[in-house]
Specification:
By secondary structure, this protein is α+β, with helices and mostly antiparallel strands. The protein is built from 14 helices and ten strands. The protein has two domains: 168 residues, no CATH class; 223 residues, Transferase(Phosphotransferase) domain 1 (Transferase(Phosphotransferase), domain 1, Orthogonal Bundle), CATH 1.10.510. Strands 1-2-3-5-4 form a five-stranded antiparallel β-sheet, with helices on one face. 42% of the residues are buried. This is (Perigord truffle) hypothetical protein.
Amino acid sequence: MEATKAAPGALGLPGTVDICLRAGQNLCERYKDVQETHKDIEDLKIRVENAWLHIAYQLATVQSSSEEVHQVLTDHIAELLNKLQFYLFTACKNLEKLKDKKGRTKVIKFAIFLKGSLGKDVSALERWRDMFSSTFYMLSVPKNPALDHILSMELQKSQPDGSAVAAVNAIRDVLADEPTKQLKSVWLDPMIMRLPTPIGYSGAHNILDNTTNTRYIMETITVDPGRRDYNRLDKDVTKLASVLRESNGVPGVLACKGVVRKQRSDGAPEKFEFILEMPHGLDESPECLRTILQRSTNEPHPLDERVFLTKQIAKAALSVHNLNFVHKNMRPENILVFPNPGKTLGIPFLVGFQMFRSADGITYRAGDESWSSNLYRHPSRQGTLPDNGYRMQHDIYSLGVILLEIGLWSPFVNEEGEPAAALSQIVHTLQDKDQRTRATRIKEVLMAMAYKYLPPKIGSKYTDIVISCLTCLDRDSELGSESEFLDDDGTLVGVRYTQQILGVLEEIDI
């Protein structure tokens, strides 16, 4: 049976999902048939089955909930399904080449074919799974009782370990105005820690719990002594910790074990220590990206690994948005890179939530006005009276500066906290007393650097992504005008980001 392709618009989303589900199951069955003759295909068969297991459960949920999802998100999912149909069709077609006209499996050229087309087909399916998972987590944000009911019904079916369906349902429950169940307390007793080790410039610490001999990452949020709305502060810390606790498996986000509240002598909160779990399967000795950039300037990591790093950071930025928070402090100091076996660069995770804010709430800590922190902030977010409320586009701007720095692989901040050689041209600009003028000029310098230096180093497509990030709040931005997002629940900007930033990054293959 040959895989069928159809236009999503002709059948509607549920019909297109049904075609994909049947095509995916057909691909898995074909791999089983071929594997009986070719034992060497076992690894590819396992990869296909693992990828499809997660895809199928997410597609079934999308099929059930299509009428309750924002139209913009529905249209985006339809585009992704069109790509999935193509990948499944191509994979089935290439697998069919292993058989002769009588249906018997060929043997002679299998080894070469295995390393070529079949491996690429499976990798394409895995990349689609990862991209779709980022989109699927967008279901976490919109408040919709009907969608809650659909997700709870889907959870009654058996789910694979690390199910995104279960994670989305749990995150929605935490974010709900009236959770369906009593949330487990996030507060922990003080830990007996041995040798808490600072992690570079991040402010986070690598700690060891003596009681359980377990390693964690500790993030500290210090409370402004002038604050008095302690109940609201406790509530928002609880919400952030609860959301992070349910985020196990969410790209670029460390799951939270709980929070230790430290008090001053008068009983007022002094700081909150977030205890974050180590990511599964990675080395427990992370470094912050700033340290890596400064150490390896003269010996850049392989280009493909640097591009992969940027893809993971971009996914992490979307993950924070899907958890209904804006980060507000994205910069290399707050990106922890965990060593990945077999790679010179590891997997990045975002920390630095000291300035956290829920997407519809208020900020609890004033900003750091150092030049190196402002470097990663949009001009409208600098100064004592910022022009606009914080939203995802401001994190996207910060991402653009980070992508520029990684693309050049030259640190913007040296070990003394001063402008590094790559930013020597802004030294004079930093003397300007008008903060907004200074910030605007620095943005212009960053864009000029991107246009001039990135194309020969990493290509025009990557350059375009950096420029899109740096101009995301401009009136003619490709991400859309400000008026489009006034009544948006976050879905529109998330979809645009996925299509024009994350999606294009995924297309870069080095």
